[in-house]
Every structure is written in structure tokens, then in C-alpha cells.
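User: My collaborator and I are trying to settle a disagreement about how two of our proteins should look. Neither of us wants to argue from intuition anymore, so we agreed to look at predicted structures for both before our next call. Could you fold the first one, then the second, and keep them clearly separated?

Assistant: That sounds like a sensible way to settle it. I'll keep them separate. The first protein:
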Amino acid sequence: MRMRFKPYAGPELAACPFHMNDATQYRGRWRETFARPAQPLHLELGCGKGGFLAELASRHPEVNYIGVDITDKVLVLAKRNIERVYAQKGLSIDNVKTLAHDIERIPTLLSAADRVERIYINFCNPWNKKANHKKHRLTHTRQLMLYRPFLAENAELWFKCDDEDLFCDTLRYLPEAGFAVIWQTRDLHADEPAWNIRTEHERMFTEMGIPTKALIARITALQNAPAGASGLTAAGAQADPAAADVQKTGMAAADAKTDAAAAGAKTDAAAAAPDEVRAVFSDGARGF
């Protein structure tokens, strides 16, 4: 079932000092919105209920964080989780922002001036049911190309998922978009790093016996841009949000080859089981 409409969400978020309404107005000057603008800027895409973001940001006051999701229904829960965790630790909420935005339109939100040093993507929708839906994955080549313009030099992408098919495909998408995988595991908890913060989905899938896959990738020079995507690699390509949308649309040509290959992809048993669980979280915001 879908998450129910929450009539209180809009007004509650509008009154929240760390939730950014009309977020696109801050494009190119996100650092200025924080109490300590010189700090590194990290981004969680699909922050969902904010459990991961609240714990991460409260552990690292030396870093500024932005959490993005598409709907107020989950962001109001993220707000409450952030408030609860910070209150428990006796901290001021001055290094984290939340906002509602369509991640497929992220060029309208961030620019090269924002210099994001790290992206977190946790348990995003794998879009496995139809081959031509895979281009909506947050780690798909065309989506990764949209992140490149606002990433700082040597920026990293930290990714976790339960889905073997999504993980394997992501390992292919990353080099296509000029990212080098510098660390990976197909069982994060077998030798769990001290830095790992288990998300709600991570705990749920672990209880089901499904291992968490994880990787860290670093942005590199783009050698061969996908067809229709070359404009996104230039430093000035993202100056105009409207142009960014045109560029994103042009990346449909780059999708054709990927979708054709995916159409006959194998079905993995480990990936099949979570699909039943995902029906409960059909909003698409799984990163919490």
C-alpha cells in the first residue's frame, strides 16, 4: 500500500527552519545556506524518512548535508527524525537541510558552484519490472551524467542496495559515466565497517537473510561520453536549468543500448524475494 496523504506535512515543513521551500532558488549557492559554509557538502538522494541522514549528520557536524526526496509525506518524517536525534544528542540542527525535488530534474537544483563532495544513495527503487524502466534508476548512466556537473574534483558516490541485479548493473553504469569503483562488497555485514549506518531497509533485508551490497566510486575524467550526453560534461553546460532539461531529454539516445541489453537480462533469485516486500514501499522512496 502507498503511504497515506498527510495533510499536516506541508504546513509543518513550511515552518521548519532546516527544510528548504522553493529549493531551486538556492541553486549555485547552497553552501551559503549553512552556518559554516566552508565545510564539505554531502548529498543524500532519496533520503526517505531520514533515519540514515539524521544519524549521519549528527555524527559529523564538520560536514554539511542535504537530503532530497520527492514527497512531503516522507520528508515530514525525516524532519521529525532529525529533530529527535539531534535533541537526544543535545545538538543544534545547523548542518543539515531537507527539500522536496524530482531527482531526475536535479540540474535545476544544483550547479558547479555548489561543489558537492559526496553523494549517498541507499536502497533506491531498482525498477526491475520492465527493461525500459531501468533508466529511472538513480545509478543509471544517464542519471550519473546529471550528477557530474555539480560534483567537486575527486567527489565520491556511496551506494548500498539489496538487489543483486541493480548492483551488477550499477557496476556497469559507473564506468560508462566516468566513475571508478574504488571499493565494493556483496556482503557489507560480513566484515562491517565502523562507518556503516544501517538503514531501515538494510535492517529489514538483513533479517530476511538478504545481504547488503555496497560500493564507493570516485568521479574521474570522462573518456567517452554516451551519445547525446556530451553537453553535460562541460563546465558550463549546467548554467541554464532549462538547457539542462533539454540535455537530459537528449540522453534518451544513450538509454537505447542499455535498455536493449537489459531486456534479456537474467532474473536473480535473491532479487526476486525483495520485490514482494517492495510492494509495501511503492512510493519509490526506499532510501531510509
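The second protein, kept apart from the first:
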Amino acid sequence: MCKIRTETRLCFLLVMILAVMLAGCGSSPAAESGSAAGGNPPKSEETADTAKSTEKAGGAAQAETARAAAADTAADAMKGASGETASAGETGVQTASAAATGSTASTAAASTASTERAASGVTGSTAEQAKEYAAQSRGLIVIDPGHQQYGNPDQEPVGPGASETKAKVSGGTSGVSTGVPEYQLTLDIGLQLRDELEARGYTVIMTRETNEVDISNSERAAVANEADADAFVRIHANGAGSSAANGAMTICQTPGNVYNGDLYADSRALSDCILNAYTQKTGIAYEYVWETDTMSGINWCRVPVTIIEMGYMTNSDEDILMQNPQFQEKMTAGIADGIDAFMADRTPKEH
């Protein structure tokens, strides 16, 4: 009996040992680490996970590429913008970079467009309006290119109410070496001066823009008077019987001018400023400021006025020099510098 019970206990123990061993096989360290059979995921799952990982990495790379591209475009837009400011640039680039995080081409493009708008500084004003506002802040200048293709010998009073008369307008002189007529030189310089002054922010009115006109000296003065110009600048070139004569001069009325002597101080200041700046810029010899009451185009003026005689067309050297395009740039810049100097301590009139 004892023997049977002992064998039964042994069997029971064996069964328990086997059960424990079988239970241990299901929770082995190898299985937990995934290195046992069934530990690795199926190949299809591995591929899917790898694809997801690649897609995520690719998306990040695309987003980074889009951000970089948008930032580059924004930077280019900032460089090309006329109204560039540091704050606009920083805001625009940040906006472009933030939008590109969404990593779509359309978003990046929209961000770039926004950056360009911010960089341009446009607030509803057009470029022409901005130019007009700038011009009003500098002053209104009337330019009179002297003479015209055909002179008009008909007479007109030398001043308001005068009994003395002069030809309405003459044809001027011509280049002794180049043969270029004075009316052509004065128009060339006048148009270049207009462009230079407008670039500096002035409003400019021309008495003529072609040679085929018939405008008397009093009528040219009337253009400046009606515009209430801040300055009336009359462009001429000189001539003399001697080919040795050279240099530049300006002309204004005398203090005792019966027509507009009250404008003498301003006209003299304008004449001084232009002659000083012109001769300094060009290197042409300084002659003098000629004060005379014989010029009808001055006598009819009710605004500050000067005539600049830019050089002698009867002097071969100056004639040739005044036809040089690079030298003409100096001529126009010199006159413009003189106008700047004249207007520096004056408040432009309200027009």
C-alpha cells in the first residue's frame, strides 16, 4: 500500500514537473527578445513599417526643401523690392518659412507672393503717385531750352508795358566745329536736365520738347509765371566774334529792373548757385554773373529766373566738348546741383 502511494506521489510530481517545464517554454527570454520563431514580424509588416518610416523622413525632407526654397525666393524678392525694409524682410521670410512647413508647392508659392508684397512696401499708392508726392516736396522747376529751329523776327515788348521791342525769338548760334545748332544743344541738355531733376524728386515743366515750335520769349516766361515755378532755368550756349572766348556765365536782372527788380535777390542767388555748381562739375571756366535788363525773357518773369550760357559754341574745344555724351551728363548734373543748392534753404511753393 505504501509502495503504491509512493509511486502515485512520484507520478504526480513528474506530472507537475512536466507542467512547469511546458509553462516555462512559453515565456522564455528568447521569445521576449523576439529572436525565437515567431518573434520577428512578417516580412509584409516589416516592409510597411519601413515604408512608413521612409515616407515620414521624406516628408520632413520635402518640408525642409520647401522652407529653404521659400526663404531663398523671399530673399530674392527682398533684394529686388524698391521699398525694402528690414522688418518687412524678416516678416516675409518668417511667413514663407512657416507656410512651407505644410510642405505644399501652392503654399510656398502663396507665401512667396506675400513676401513680395510685403517687401515692395506698396500700401495702395502707385509708383506714379509716390513720384508725384516726392516731386511736390522738392519744388517745381520750369526749363526753357533756348531758341527754336526757326527764329521769329516779329517784335514784342521787352517787358510788360514797355515801348521798346525786340524780336520774339532768334535761332541762336551754332558749333564752329560740330555744326550743331544751339537750339538742338539746348534741347538735348534741357531734356536730360528734366530727367535728372525728376529723378531727384522735382516736378518739371518744359517750355518746349521739340525744335518745331514758335514760342516767343515773353510766352516762355508766361509758362513759368502761370505755373508759379520755384525757379525758371533758361538753357543757352554762347557765341562770340573771337574763337578764344571761353567759359560759362549766368544772367539775371539788376536790382533796379523796372519790371521785376523785387525778384533780383532770388534770381541772383539762383544764378550764383547754378554757375558755381556747373563750373565745379564740368571744369569749364567761370566767367561771371551778368546783371542786365536787356533780356525780354527775364523781364517778363514773375518768378526767380536765370539764363545759363553753358559754354562757347564759337570755341572749337568747348563746342566739341559739349557734344560729348559723357560730358553732357556732367553738364546736366552740374545744373541740377545748382538747383539743389538754391532750393536747400527754401520751402517749395504749394501748387
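Some points you might bring to the call about the second protein. The radius of gyration is 44 Å. DSSP finds twelve helices and eight strands in the chain.
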